[in-house]
Amino acid sequence: xxxxxxxxxxxxxxxxxRADEAERLLASHPDLAVTVGIIDEVEFVIIRRLAKExxxxxxxxxxxxxxxxxxLDFASxxxxxxxxxxxxxxxxxxxxxxxxxxLLETMRKYQLTPSDAIIALTCKHYxxxxxITFDEDFKRIPWLKVIP
Length: 148
Prior knowledge:
By secondary structure, the chain is of the alpha/beta class. The protein has one domain: 5'-nuclease (Rossmann fold), CATH 3.40.50. Helices cover 58% and strands 11% of the residues. Helix 1 packs across helix 2, helix 1 runs parallel beside helix 3 and helix 6 crosses helix 7. The longest helix is centred in the N-terminal third of the chain and has 20 residues.
């Protein structure tokens, strides 16, 4: 099993510079998974980016107000596309794992953000030894092989 990182989905969904590579990676690797945290990150990036592009909303407080009063219609197309991707590529969803002391130690030892440390620890917890990502930071994690 391999975990697919946030940036792969974002590149693909927003037709980024590496969108073709992201699609090829997803299509060529069976037995893929994401964590709940990765789903959260992808959806948050989608919502923030589209709020800025489509509505001109930059502040989180304004975005929350918009969602509370008008919903997520402005982002439903891309959020739906992401959900369909998870189903199309038969991507499993794993619960995040992070014990607080181990999380802090991993952040410090490998110089990671909290979300990246949680992904690394979740992989370790489930015995996953590979991650599909464009994020060079995961190369510092000894138990993870970075693809590509």
